[in-house]
Amino acid sequence: MSTLRIALAQIDTCVGNLVTNASTVLAYAKRAAADHARIVAFPEMTLTGYPIEDLALRATFRQAAWDTAADLAQTLQQEGLGDLYVVVGTIGTDHDNGKPRNRLVVLHEGQVVAGYDKHFLPNYGVFDEFRIFSAGERSTVLTIDGVRVGVAICEDIWQEGGPVADLAGQGIDLLLTINGSPYEEGKGHIRQELAARRAAEVNAPIIYLNQVGGQDDLVFDGGSFVLDTDGTLLERSPMFMENLSFFTLDTNQTRQTPTTIAALPDPDEEVYTACVLGLKDYMAKNGFTGVTLGLSGGIDSALVAAMAADACGGENVWGISMPSMYSSDGSKDDAADLAHNLGAHYEVQPIEPLFMAFQDQLHLEGVSAENLQARIRGVIVMATSNSKNVLALATGNKSELACGYSTIYGDAVGGYAPIKDLFKTKVWQIARWRNKALTQGMGIGGLNVVGNEDGASGIMPASGVIIPVNSIEKAPSAELRPGQKDSDSLPEYALLDQVLAAYIEHAHGRADLIADGFDEQTVDTVMRLVDRAEWKRRQYPLGPKVSALAFGRDRRLPVTNAFRE
Amino acid sequence: MSTLRIALAQIDTCVGNLVTNASTVLAYAKRAAADHARIVAFPEMTLTGYPIEDLALRATFRQAAWDTAADLAQTLQQEGLGDLYVVVGTIGTDHDNGKPRNRLVVLHEGQVVAGYDKHFLPNYGVFDEFRIFSAGERSTVLTIDGVRVGVAICEDIWQEGGPVADLAGQGIDLLLTINGSPYEEGKGHIRQELAARRAAEVNAPIIYLNQVGGQDDLVFDGGSFVLDTDGTLLERSPMFMENLSFFTLDTNQTRQTPTTIAALPDPDEEVYTACVLGLKDYMAKNGFTGVTLGLSGGIDSALVAAMAADACGGENVWGISMPSMYSSDGSKDDAADLAHNLGAHYEVQPIEPLFMAFQDQLHLEGVSAENLQARIRGVIVMATSNSKNVLALATGNKSELACGYSTIYGDAVGGYAPIKDLFKTKVWQIARWRNKALTQGMGIGGLNVVGNEDGASGIMPASGVIIPVNSIEKAPSAELRPGQKDSDSLPEYALLDQVLAAYIEHAHGRADLIADGFDEQTVDTVMRLVDRAEWKRRQYPLGPKVSALAFGRDRRLPVTNAFRE
């Protein structure tokens, strides 16, 4: 036989939840078999979830993962799927040194019949794999119905040499790579270019199968694809949703037949959907069904509220307006309009009586009194979080997080910060896009969103927008003293965001920034703010390490962790 | 010549503060030369500070560090110290791939005359060196006055093979290792046993020179030492303080002559001093001269206040008693006594009026109402922190941090948590020791402590104790509802701390813990609490990554960072 039908199961797993992850594999395997697949492939570390961080170091976890793979192989057999080759990621153990390994296994005829260990262990950016895994040394080729399938795991195709170079010398018919590649704006085309180079290198088509879903602070965007030997796109799965697609390899043909190619979202939709999916999955995987947040009438809280309503339905969003003596009427109206547009709960808790009660005792002035207002709001948001058992959302954006332009334990309160990685100028852009998406009836990354006909709330506001135009257009202000504007303390955002991008994302130093054309005073202001802000981002976990294992940088555990053994 | 006089400069550096670090090197080099040293050795990454985390990835920082080393070599020459061999740690660049390297350089006759790059890059526990450095491949032997000195950096001696094995084959007269080895309880003897093995391996005496001082959540304990070829201790520097000591190697002798051997602190003094030094340095390196904290009358805040007074003087400690309707009179008295004993500022801010003001609006019940009390206290502590520009201290211990038994944004408020790595049972033990140290007039790690004759405050309380006995002996309670005790929610601490040690420090799973003899119910309670508490420890930085570089696990920057270029 010279054809091989492969199912690409782009699924959303949960770290530590071996039982649920195995069930998902079984369900997709059934669907794959029903559609005549010989192989069904799942993402990197399917059974364990990914990334598992230091949970990998727990021996009971590795044992349980091993048992899960063995049990799953038997269950597949019992369910009449023994013929199917099920390729899943999991954790293994290096028999030489006992260290964990990032492993791909093949389940077939009730057994774990083959394995491959990831060779290149990324240890930059968000990755810490050299910390927890030892590296595999051998390449693996599966021969199925006479077709030679080489396998690789994620970083293996990002580095020169290693298993791909090895496979290139062995003559394979297909390269199958399973991935847990986190979302970054515009990363899709980088993956595709890279995969095209590897297809050329091994002289065969390549399947790039990616994980989908949010895990703590990462979002996996899916967007799995198949390229022909010459780089032609043969298949593309949608981004940001679970999906099962099929590709049939015919080794008698030099050109393969294309199949379904999902459309790509536009760049703003892509970012918006990534944020919504990250929040939605964080809630689901940590047992939250609703959220609460302060609604100031400003753009940050408005965008976060819209994302939250799209993630869990407006009826599960508790918005709290907490006006002070410095809040403008416009701000209060904008907050109310927003909540109405989203179908969210809306409550007004004026902070003035509370502020006066504190001031009777504390007599604070200046920034201390400004922070007090923000902290009273933080207390109210957390009271709602506790009493309604909903997740508190922090509404800070990347510009203010970078500069420390927020009150710690005040507006920075929250268990999850949906827009913490969006610069302020991007916040405005995405908010405008969200309004446009509504009026044009555009879908949003397959999500069931507020305002769309099939949306959770089905509301179409009379104003024709979700986010009040005033929230987008007015000059940003913390409203903590009369007439305050962000621009009193920070450069204008259009400039600030450029400096921040150069300083943070491109690691430019002072001299580089001045050479970039930014004026000295702006550069010095921004550098001073950014360098100091790390202090705010790292409260409480900071304290001296005394024992062999302290909390903090010693132990790197996933927040989402369903493992209980 | 067959003798070589070496100065061991055990100094405290600051990450990013190239100028100050270079000045300290110059000052110690002068003292070393005045006492006829030929070589003066400094700790790992002396010029840059250590650990520098992702600051290593900034090109301007590497350039500035390089310039600093070159300038320092010239300054030493100009100051008449050109003859001296000055061994310092710094950052280098790998010319093949542009990656940073963890480098040792030798300054002599106005030049950087030799270099060695760390071979083994630790990437476990608190270490992330594989992430930021590339590994050196060559060993280096310095020949000075005919004496062959092999060099190594920290982890190089912790792993088998590598540069030490290489040096063993080359015949050296002395092994000099420069270190940034963080403190852990009881680690001193492990280092010494290891060094003895390496001395035997290279068949020569070994100098183990360690950094001292606090850097973010690490404390470096110093305790540098020299061992003879047979492992005999020849020199030991004191722990927890800067120090310059000397050792003269005579290659004509098979046994070297011992010199100063500093006494070791007792185990409780060691832990206490580590916590005080960590706090003291965190304050100094981040520009704080005072602290504030809530004084509940309980043991945690009492011990933290004592540490703070020992770190910065009682007159720089602002203690705030914040009684509620549930606070016992005993608690209020204990808080007042403690502040008096420490010579600390003491203020009473009843929270009942504030609590009533919130409840008029919020009508909270149960745990939500308990958390409200703790959060009102958090607001007051932060108000003091802001208005007096002092560091807020969190008083949580490791047992409650592990179990999440605290109110986020409430008692967990603070920029630094001095006892976050002490289990509750250890808190009691250390508090008792601190009282005993006072009454016996014992020194504390060379620190100028409250109550000692030469102490900063010079107070000897009439009670004969610093920490009120009642704070140590009463049953622990959060006092957030009538008659509340910690034991209502947690196993007794004597048991809890054992389970926590087994679960956290030894990574025992559920089955292991039951095999350890703990009952199932306790095991399940503790595992559930601990697994959930990660959520509390990781607030706000958590949110979806959208760009190539987000805050959170992407960028790992030191909090203390004085670099401004």
UniProtKB/TrEMBL annotation, chains A, B:
Domain of life: Bacteria
Domain CN hydrolase: 4-251
First-tier enzyme category under EC: ligase
Binding site for ATP: G294, L295, S296, G297, G298, I299, D300, S301, T395
Metabolic or biological pathway: Cofactor biosynthesis; NAD(+) biosynthesis; NAD(+) from deamido-NAD(+) (L-Gln route): step 1/1
EC numbers on record: 6.3.5.1
UniProt GO MF annotations: ATP binding; glutaminase activity; NAD+ synthase (glutamine-hydrolyzing) activity; NAD+ synthase activity
Catalytic reaction equation(s): deamido-NAD(+) + L-glutamine + ATP + H2O = L-glutamate + AMP + diphosphate + NAD(+) + H(+)
Binding, L-glutamine: Y124, S181, K187
Keyword Nucleotide-binding recorded: yes
BP GO annotations: NAD+ biosynthetic process
Matches recorded under InterPro entries: C-N_Hydrolase, C-N_Hydrolase_sf, Gln-dep_NAD_synthase, NAD/GMP_synthase, NAD_synthase, Rossmann-like_a/b/a_fold
Function comment: Catalyzes the ATP-dependent amidation of deamido-NAD to form NAD. Uses L-glutamine as a nitrogen source.
NCBIfam families, sorted: nadE, PRK13981.1
Family, as annotated: Belongs to the NAD synthetase family.
Protein name per the record: Glutamine-dependent NAD(+) synthetase
Native organism: Bifidobacterium gallicum DSM 20093 = LMG 11596
Lineage: Bacteria, Bacillati, Actinomycetota, Actinomycetes, Bifidobacteriales
